[in-house]
Amino acid sequence: MFVTTADPVLEPPIITVNTVLSLLAVDYPADKLACYVSDDACSPLTYHSLVEASKFAKLWVPFCKKYKVQVRAPFRYFLGDSEPLNTSSSSEFKQDWLKIKAEYELLVRKTEEAAQKSSVPWDLTGEFADFYNVERHNHPTIIKIILEHRGTVSDAVPNLVYISREKKPNKPHHYKAGAMNVLTRVSGVMTNAPFMLNVDCDMLVNNPQVIRQAMCQLLGSKNERETGFVQFPQVFYGELRVDSYASQLVVFQKYMSRGMAGLQGPHYMGTGCFHRRKVIYGLWPEDAKKETRNHTSFNDIKEFGNSDEFISSTSQALKGKKGFTNNLSNSHEASFQVASCSYESGTIWGTKCGWIYGSTVEDTLTGLTIHAKGWNSTLLTPEPPAFTGISPSWGPGAMGHQKRGATGLLEILVCKNNPITATLTSKLQFRTCLAYLWFLVWGLHSIPELCYAVLPAYCILTDSPFLPKVEEPAILIPIAIFVTFNLHTLGEYLKTGFSVRAWWYNLRMARISSTSPHLFGLLSIILKLLGLAESVFEVTNKDQSSDDDDNDHVAKFTFNGSAFFIPGTTIMIVHLISLLALSLRLQSPVHGTHGVGIGEVFCSLWVVLCFWPFLKGLSGRGKNGIPSSTIVKSAALASAFVLFCRT
What we know:
The protein is α/β, with parallel strands linked by helices. Helix content is 49%, strand content 7%. It has helices at residues 13-24, 44-66, 74-77, 91-116, 175-190, 210-218, 221-226, 250-261, 277-280, 285-290, 308-318, 332-338, 362-372, 395-414, 419-425, 430-440, 446-462, 476-496, 500-515, 517-529, 551-554, 565-583, 598-610, 612-619, 628-646, and strands at residues 2-5, 34-39, 142-147, 159-164, 195-200, 204-205, 227-231, 273-276, 376-379, 387-388.
């Protein structure tokens, strides 16, 4: 079980702690489980929090299994101040409940107090000595065995290992993909389990039977030859009926992911996924059938690196042998070697095996590579949902998240491993190729979206129509397209259980996303192709309390000085100017045209409605208002556009 975190500020350790505790408490034999936490920030705070959590886990795991607790993340279980005072609860349970809650509150208090102090709240000696004088992007490998399972006690706690891979300024570390490959190699020399689950640090286990459910899809002779990975959908706890930032993927997963499940299977979403280790190592389905490696591109087992221990574990994994060692400490030294930043030099890591490098959305690229070899994937949608996580809930955070996604998807589109190449040269099915292309081109939508967003304003300012007149029969064509599209998307949201208001917020955010973060994602790719810049992996801010705030508060759009908000503000100012010019009859008519009609005015008003948060932001204050610097820049761009229209 892999958990990844990269920033103790944007991803508070208490969130990671809850995720780890929910994993340690799943209904599965503890001697067959091990949890590896990757800390790319090399933070002593994260390690301190995990050490404290390991002490609490020795109480929490037996409590969950004894009373068959459904929600095994203590944050969600103890949500609110209510106590189990129902008459059906035994006095023993009430006593245990109060004791566990008190211990959890103590854990939270210790973690928060450590995080709030400006300096390191402990001496960097003893077990913390490895963190002395380390820098985030320049430090040696740190691997700590926090918990090691011993014996066969039914309520024992699984293994827990902390990993901070080596980093050096002149060595590429490949962001999350590099961290996942280190986790794969370290777990290979320590436990070498045939299956690997990876979750983000905010993805809590919501269904304790999740591992058994996944094993039902992965085990069996047929599945061994066909199923490469099992994907659970992303579900967000405290789900909002009004999703003002379009960060929940419920509708997308209901239609697109389930549609892909009827082909080669859903794409890999980066979290909540069970992988077959030998598939991650590059095995092809034909090799699984023949139990050989004749069809793979491996020329030598040494292509996996120069660690004898890891080569031995790799050979066992490719042959389908299980290899859980009895003592993690015996492989502690070998784990440092495979976690070094120079280990991948001259190997096939990141190109033919492991998580594939070359995109900030390494999950989609890795899943595409697996599908291209002919493997299928499986989508599981149990009730209750297997995992629940935190949705980005503030403007800049959501914008950055979508910009990273658009950038990464376009990187895949222009790389040599794109779906078209995979279909022509490998075993990606044609319809699966079309499904991948459908969301890989999201970033390309930004140019036509931007043009259409300013087209009504341009036509009003120049007094030139682009739509037929109302009295002309041809006007029925754009009206039919407009009505059909909106009724279709509204139907999708209503069938998924969302309200009309939620549909409107998501439709509005689709327009904002296409003209802002997706546009910046496209620009990033252009600069990368020209060799002027490199794409950057931006960590999304995660706030554990955000999903449980009042809906009206969450639905407020927030701003900062980011360039993300310049396009939307500019579009709003341009349309306000055009509508004002129309009311004052200040347009500059184009020779030979009949002037604008109701259609152009309606389209302009529709754009204003779609970008309504920016209109409110122009007069808002604090984080709900657009910064004056952004307004000045947008006003300058809007003025240039108006001058262009009048020349």
